[in-house]
Amino acid sequence: MSAVYLKNSYLLIEASVAQVAFGDDPQVNVVYYLDRKTLLVAGKSKSFFETMHKTSRVLLKDRNLLGDKSVNIRELLIDNDLNDTDRDLIYDLKITGILSVIL
User: Fold this and answer.
1) How high is the pLDDT of residue 25?
2) What is the pLDDT of residues 18-63, one digit of tens each?
3) Helix, strand or coil for residue 79?
4) Does residue 13 contact residue 4 with C-beta atoms inside 8 Å?
5) N or C: which end of the chain has fewer CB within 10 A?
6) pLDDT confidence of residue 51
7) pLDDT in tens, 57-83
8) Cα 99 to chain center, whole Å?
């Protein structure tokens, strides 16, 4: 199983990835690029990300005591007519702390 997956329209991120990507940020900025079928997610503290992309800010929820996180992306899936089937996702965690996810 992948450390990043889609379940019930939530982007679920295992603690090992979430801690490196978002640290203690309670919110994340997200942007979806239809042409690349890629969702970019960055912690609120990465202000450079907001200046580079037209983002939406969403709540980064604690999923469990292990440190796994979740982000509700239901609206994004509907707005872009994306497959909402529960599945493992291909992702890349950039050196800058930006999580790139193929939807």
Assistant:
1) 94
2) 999 999 999 999 999 999 999 999 999 998 898 888 888 999 999 9
3) helix
4) yes
5) N
6) 83
7) 999 999 999 999 999 999 999 999 999
8) 6
Positions of E strands within 14-59: 27-33, 38-43, 56-59
How far apart (Å, rounded) are the C-alpha atoms in residues 53 and 88? Answer: 26
How many residues are listed for the chain in this entry? Answer: 103
pTM above 0.90, yes or no: yes
18 membership: H or E segment, kind and range: helix 15-22
Helix, strand, or coil (residue 49) = helix
What pLDDT, on the 0 to 100 scale, is given for residue 4?
98
Provide the 8-state DSSP code for 5: E
**Residue carrying the six token digits 């800010």:** 57
Torsion of CA 101, 38, 77, 80, to 10 degrees: 180
Provide the token pair at 76: 């994004």
